[in-house]
Design goal:
Blueprint (H helix, E strand, L loop, with lengths): L7 H13 L12 E14 L2 E15 L3 H4 L9 H15 L4 H15 L3 E10 L2 E7 L5 E10 L4 E9 L5 E13 L24 E11 L7 H17 L11 H15 L3 E9 L2 E4 L17 E4 L5 E7 L10
Antiparallel strand pairs: 1-2, 2-3, 3-6, 4-5, 6-7, 7-8, 8-9, 9-12, 10-11
Length: 327
């Protein structure tokens, strides 16, 4: 049984140890605080045509002083509730364009208004709304003026990290882009030793959930929406290929590299791009145990298996580019 209270001798020893400890023996090596998961919907009305943007925003600040931690002095703290209010007020004041533009608006505000803020970091995730299409009486596709459909093909996000007197670091990305193709994927001639059980696969289903992020060299005269759409289309092109013939995928690694190379070639403002593709396996169901019901080879029915899974990652950067952050 442990004693309910410290013995007087041990208590006295503990107090003495604390009093004798010099503050120089310890250092606060990092700090930061902010507000997470601030949800906002912005509606821009142009006559009868309305435009919407729905974001989830995280704001994090670093202060020069650590007196709030060391001395309990709150005089420099911009309350997380105030940070939340700032998101709504700046959206009203300046409008909302892209996640990157809005994040830059927020970081610049925090640094310009509060001189004791050392760094502002804003993370924005966009909810994927698209305008509803319908067919009119003339059998033509029309976009609805003010009705929208939630279409989570891929989740868009960005991080803007802005230190005072330095150029902001802007990282954009997409995640949860689930893709699958039923042929033109192979995996052969890999290491064959006593640990291997996987056979060569000349033709297999290829499915993954793509995550991709990239850091900008500069943002002069850049349209963040166009860049994001271009990156997404390049990845899909290298995964799927021609609509009729497709494109061969000898490995996930090669598909990743070809996508990265095309992204850097197409968008000169991007310094580095990361892509991660976990394997989502679809194995043919074994029909051999049911010869009285099924005869012949099974190429139609598959068993989805998402765990455990392989996970393939790569970073491709321009040569001689000094990056300010790790993606």
């Amino acid at each position: 049984m442990f004693p309910r209270k410290l013995t007087s001798a041990f208590e006295q020893s503990l107090k003495s140890s604390i009093l004798n400890t010099r503050s120089t023996e310890f250092e606060i090596s990092d700090t930061g605080y902010g507000k997470d998961h601030v949800k906002i919907l912005h509606v821009r009305r142009e006559g009868n045509v309305h435009h919407i943007k729905e974001f989830e925003v995280n704001t994090h600040l670093k202060l020069y002083s650590k007196k709030d931690y060391l001395n309990g002095d709150n005089s420099d703290i911009i309350a997380t509730d105030s940070q939340k209010n700032t998101v709504y007020l700046l959206a009203k004041k300046f409008g909302v364009k892209s996640p990157e533009d809005f994040a830059l608006t927020l970081t610049r505000h925090f640094l310009s208004k509060y001189r004791h803020v050392k760094e502002a970091h804003v993370h924005v995730e966009e909810y994927p709304w698209e305008r509803i299409q319908y067919t009119n009486a003339q059998n033509k596709e029309k976009l609805h003026n003010h009705a929208f459909l939630f279409t989570p093909v891929a989740n868009r996000y960005c991080d803007v990290i802005h230190q005072r007197d330095l150029r902001p670091t802007i990282i954009s990305g997409l995640k949860n882009m689930r893709v699958l193709k039923t042929t033109r994927s192979s995996f052969v001639d890999f290491v064959d030793d006593e640990y291997r059980s996987l056979p060569d696969m000349e033709d297999r289903l290829f499915s993954t959930s793509v995550s991709c992020c990239w850091e900008y060299l500069n943002i002069t005269d850049i349209n963040f929406d166009d860049v994001w759409s271009t990156v997404k289309e390049i990845i899909l092109k290298n995964f799927a290929g021609d609509p009729v013939d497709g494109v061969p995928s000898p490995s996930v690694q090669n598909t990743i590299y070809l996508s990265q190379k095309d992204i850097l070639a197409a968008i000169q403002q991007i310094a580095v791009v990361n892509i991660e593709m976990p394997n989502i396996h679809y194995y043919p169901f074994d029909m051999s145990k049911f010869p009285k019901v099924i005869q012949g080879e099974n190429k139609e029915v598959y068993h989805p298996v998402d765990k455990p899974n392989g996970n393939i990652f790569s970073q491709l950067a321009r040569v001689d580019v000094n990056l300010k952050s790790k993606l």
